[in-house]
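User: What would this chain look like folded?
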Amino acid sequence: MKRFCADLHVHTCLSPCGDLSMDPREVVERALLRGVELMAICDHNSTGNCAAVMEAARGKALCVLPGCEICTAEEIHLLALFEDMAGAHGVQGYLDAHLTGVNAPEIFGYQIEADAQGCFTAECTDFLIGALDEGVEAVAEAVKDHGGVVICAHIDRRSFSVISQLGFMPVDLVPDAVEMTLPGIQGGFPQSHAAGFPVITASDAHFPWDVGRWTTIFKMNDPSFHELALALSGSEGRGVAGYEERSDAGVIWSSL
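Assistant: Here's the prediction, encoded as structure tokens.
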């Protein structure tokens, strides 16, 4: 069993709040610079740039999982991670059916699709920063129906989290893990709000210099979706082994 560095919450230039420099090639290069070995692309309510990032990482020491950050009707953010683009495409159909509105780029930011070489290919006009018309339990069920892993995003933040919006973890919501910021994990947030679920941290990067800043160390056989699922369930000796804060110069803080 080995230890692998993972950043499971990274945005690209497709997210309206993401920097336009966050094209697929740049995201991969930044992840490699920080020593990230497993990364998930989680743009707001879209999987549109996942395939391009996966292609940009092909042949490199980095496994990229397709995913998205979904905003529920309660304005709770959930991370949805998938093994391949088949699952991502399945949930994209669900997103398209339950997300309405048109983006105003001059207000919310541009939403750019790009290829593996970093060239812009299209502008998405959907209102990706908006909320779906279905609640958190229904969204989580839809993700699992398409073979995905569900993670409650940044539960220690004062907005767009299950705790900020509801004040508690619903009984019928059974995520595979919860995400906290690293300061929250270090003691600034009640661990009881994690409700006994595995805790991860991730960069939630919207800018190149944030990719791989906060990472989770997993004990697994290899950096893959299958091994990640085992680690989150604590099965067969896999699990969360610790957390790290990383800079271009190396590890700043580690719980290992």
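The domain at 2-254 is CATH 3.20.20.140 (TIM Barrel). If you want, I can go into more detail on any region.
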